[in-house]
Amino acid sequence: MNLSYKWLKEYVDFDLTPETLAEKLTSSGIAVEGITNLSEELSDIVIGEVISCEQHPNADKLSLCKVSDGQGEYPVVCGAINVAKGQKIVFAKIGATLPGDFTIKAAKLRGVDSEGMICSAKELGISSEWLLPEQRDGILVLDTDAPIGSDAIAYLDLDDYVMELDLTPDRGDCLSLINVARQVAAITGSRVRFPDIAFNEVITESDKGIDIKIEAPEDCPRYVGKIVENIQVGPSPFWVQNKLRNAGIRPISNVVDVTNYVLLELGQPLHAFDYEQLQGQQIIVRRSKKGETIVTLDEQERTLDDTMLLICDAARPVAIAGVMGAENSEVTEKTQTVLIESAYFNPVSVRKTSTKLGLRSEASARFEKGINYEQTKVAAQRAAQLLSEISSAIPHESETDVYPNPIERARVSLRFTKVNQLLGTSLTNEEIKDILKSLQLEMVEDNGDSVIFQIPAFRPDLRIEEDLIEEVASIFGLENIPVTLPYGDTHKGARNTEQKIRTRIFEVLKAAGANEIITYSFINRNHLDKILLPENDLRRNVVEVLNPLSEEQGVMRTTLIPGILDNALRNHNRKSENLLTFEVGKVYYKNGFPEKTELPEEEMKLSVFGRGRMAGDWKNKAEEIDFYYIKGMIDALFSSLKINDIEYVPANDSGEYHPGRCAKILLGGTFIGYIGELNPKVADNYSLSGRNYMAELHLDTIITSCEEKISYRYLPKYPGMNRDLAILIDDQIRAGQIVETIEKTGGELLRNVEVFDLYQGAQIPEGKKSIAFSLQFQAEDRTLTDDEVSIIIEKIKQVLEETFAAKLRD
Amino acid sequence: MRQQLEEIKEKTKKVLEENFNSEELNDLKVKILGKKGELTTILKEMGKVSAEERPVIGQLANQVRDELQQVFAEKQQEIKNKELENKLKEETIDVTLPGREMKKGSIHPITKTIMEAEDIFIGLGFEIAEGPEIETDFYNFEALNLPKDHPARDMQDSFYITPEVLLRTHTSPVQIRSMIEKKSEIPLKIICPGKVYRRDDDATHSPMFHQIEGLVIDKNIRMSDLKGVLLTFAREMFGTEQKIRLRPSFFPFTEPSAEVDISCVMCGGKGCRVCKQTGWLEILGSGMVHPNVLRYGGYDPEEVSAFAFGMGVERIAMLKYGINDLRLFYENDVRFLSQF
Ligand SMILES: [Zn+2]
Description:
Helix content of chain A: 25-40%
Strand content of chain B: 15-25%
CATH topology of the largest domain in chain A: BirA Bifunctional Protein, domain 2
Shape of chain B: rod-shaped
Bound molecules: zinc ion
Number of helices of chain A: 20
CATH architecture of the largest domain in chain A: 2-Layer Sandwich
Strand order of the largest sheet of chain B: 1-5-6-10-9-8-7
Oligomer: heterodimer
Number of strands of chain A: 39
Order of helices and strands of chain B: HHHHHEEHEEHEEHEEEHEHHH
Strand order of the largest sheet of chain A: 27-30-31-35-34-33-32
């Protein structure tokens, strides 16, 4: 909401600059987001009168005027078509400044002297958004009673500062000047001035009456109707227009402007009906029927349901309560009598209705936060008073006030010790009481250690003890609360085992040269097809988002692969061809949800992706990323997690992988994921050229089977012995099988077997490969002899020959 | 003979003034001082010297030999030094060529920021709690004092899975879960980092982002403790000069509530474009936990009190690393990632 600094001063005296006021309001809980000085670029502008206006001798479209400022007369050439003799206008004399760094100078226009300028609203920096239609073109014509020679900036209330309030949802009360004034009064120790309500003339007897019936008292606890006759609808005087404009509401006509004036001043939304259009001199407040329709003021036909509250006359709905009036009873130029509605509607009811209809208004914004239920009648009177002040209108002396079950003011008790306990302050009882009293809370009971306050009707947000403590804190100043640290039992903070392991995984993969990525948890469902998941794959069991922003974010991911592939493509498009990335994140499975489980299943996964080359340099050639590179990373990960029981089993059952270049990874026999080359068909679906490698692992399983503690193994006391073994073997036989056989045959003296060479090509027969192993022997209790190792080697050779028809090489 | 000795001494010294390599020097040394060398040959004539002169000549002979040995040794050292010098000269390499390329991976700035914040709070005695990202309405809203009709629900437009289940809009549900799990044990000191989701996607909003929320429950937890913990955090995260400022605010789950500003990390509080000339940057929301929330979590607000706070990780990371565009976090451009 926009708060006028100048207007605020009508309700409370304070001696603070706009900046200081903004600071104080902000630190008391009414945040001021910005301040605009409306007259920043304006100076020396006065109210003038056009005393003569003639055709310019040398230009058809220009007029030659004489303008008086009460002291002198000035020739002014004016180009506006609406300029006329007798008008009160805004006169910028020589030396005056206008927005856009514009200074008025004496000029000769088409041979005629011009000593000043008659201003349009636009030239004064007023946007046409805030103007009446007739003010948007040509010069701004002021009210006939505008005092000649006086400051036009003040007259137009441009000597004002507009403060933009950013109110929290609980402080809806400050959507009104009077309640901001109350806050200012509490901060400054000053007093609030409520506007005097008095009438010069009232109608005591009239055949125009209104009968009000509330059929839904829950939704409408109070409804006041006040009739005002002898209306002449027309523009409001400038002082009304100015205030609305500075508050960000467009002036329309005196009747509408007055309702908005009171809305801003008191926070009470009002509605003005054209009384003659109301049938049967009746207002009925009732719930709508399902399917009932109404055409609102914005010319939209709205279909209602049976939860919405309607204001009806004897025959039909005339407004959606608290939200918007209907076209059928709208105030028009012909309106002579109005019924001013001032009501208190149930905040929840208004909120639901305006949300369902997608219809928000200044009125609904206030109703739904809860307005002052004791101000209903006063607000109607205030509007009537203002209408009679600015037009010929005469209000009825009394109004109809239907308030079947008056709302009782809330009472909240407060313990002084609790205040200091919760804030860490040492305020005295008196200090606490004074702060709350300054907010116009009435102390109705004082029990020494505790007090009971009655909450004024304009602060519906204060309901419990803590609310009062918050008020104390805000007015006392949060900056005055000391700085301490919690005392009492301290315990050591730490990551749990799982979190520690996860941290280690990040470190290992980073050290391996991979960049961590974070992608969205939701994906487009079509990814599941793009990565060629079989129809019965569990990963097709996705959780759908009911209201996604787009199909791109339509379902929750069951795999990290789409995210990492999309990312690879994005980097490829940006010319980053060499990639090594990983992601740790959750995937989500529907499983028994929602029938059998309260929530879908969530699982932590790890994905690794690589393509292109690792960094090379002028000395060493860049290493190509291939299957074994990714496998090496995964192995490094397992080894740093002290996981040994890993097995890679050839697999061709997962669509996203190359069927001949994929392995299932088993941990202690349990499946924990796939590793492999991206299926070229999938690569094609993602426009990823070249070869791509990846792995996706179930992190939760890995974490539960990983030992956090490192247990040191003693270094051997006796020297070990290394032997190499090279064999020629059928190409189809996998290295893993051979190693397994060697290990089994080698017995416990064989500590380690490693593949150190693989060769195919020249000198190797077709369909064969040469593969070399390095075997490491070690005994705990003695130095091994050549002979005993040779015996084992011979046995291994023999078994390899028998099992795989391997031929020994030298 | 005396003369012979003097001659050989002078001659050798003269010869040694010329340039030799170490091999030549060795040959020369053998020629003069060796078993069959010139000096030895002269000394073999010693028998011919008279008995009176013999001691004198003997002394002179020793003197000459020592002197020559000394001269040879010096020359030897000189040659060695020169040769080493030449060798080093030949071995010169181009030190301006780039070093060998090492593997350089990176941790995403979001993860990095979370880890750093975790470490700070661990130092303050906090544990790290985690929970589901798909949540029930109860944990995400209701238990946080946000009943169905609460106006503040508008503040967070959510992604729904069913009318009762949604993507969590903050990590606060983890607090409720932790409270219930703890069965009203005190103290409870946790932070809850993680992904959260809101239906917003523009230059300054991402539909998925990260939060770190914190909760401390104990007897006599005060708002002043909240200030102390947050000040410590701000100083460890952004530097020891940091100040914090609390402004009253509103959150349904805390009462009193406060927004917390830190002094601007760009200008140090003098005022700049980033802080809109205020010298302050808003980084988190906080407050004393609302009694209803404590009750939902199984704690008695008459027995204990609590504070809670929550911050956006992206915002912290942007301030910490000077990142100016939120979208960079989820584009995962390796040229961006490699900088962390
Ligand atoms: Zn700054």
